[in-house]
Amino acid sequence: MYDIYELAPSMRLLIAMHNISSVDPTTAKSLDELKIASGMSEPELQNAVRELLSYGYVESLGAAYYLSRLGICVIRSVYT
């Protein structure tokens, strides 16, 4: 049975990135750090990162990732 309240992997990752304060280039996190913070499998994490990059919610700095201003706005809308 499908849980209607289960969050999509990309949203779980967005929340995890916010929770670990990966919000600018100086606090960007590697995929390994994001994997630990989110509890996602490697394929699930890679798909979520690709999706968030395509939406402009996440930006990359080499092999590290952080929330964009747009991603931070999306997170704020979740909590308000």
Textual characterization of the structure:
The chain has 80 residues and is of the alpha+beta class. It is built from 4 helices and 3 strands. The protein has helices at 9-19, 31-38, 42-55, 69-79, and strands at 29-30, 58-61, 64-67. A 3-stranded antiparallel β-sheet has the order 1-3-2. Helix 1 crosses helix 3 (42-55). 25% of the residues are buried. The mean pLDDT is 93.
Explain briefly what this protein structure is.
The chain is of the alpha+beta class.
Which characteristics define this entry?
globular, single chain, alpha+beta, 80 residues
Run of helices and strands:
HEHHEEH
Strand content: 5-15%
Biggest sheet descriptor: 3 strands, antiparallel
Tell me the number of helical segments per DSSP (H or I, 4 or more residues long). Answer: 4
Structure class: alpha+beta
Number of strands: 3
Going across the major beta sheet, what is the strand order?
1-3-2
Helix content: 55-70%
Anisotropy-based shape = globular
Low-pLDDT stretches are none
First-last Cα distance: 29 Å
Indicate the multimeric state: single chain
Chain-averaged pLDDT: 93
Radius of gyration of CA atoms, rounded to a whole number:
12 Å
Question: What is the topological layout?
Answer:
Layout: H1 9-19, E1 29-30, H2 31-38, H3 42-55, E2 58-61, E3 64-67, H4 69-79
Helix pairs in contact: 1-3
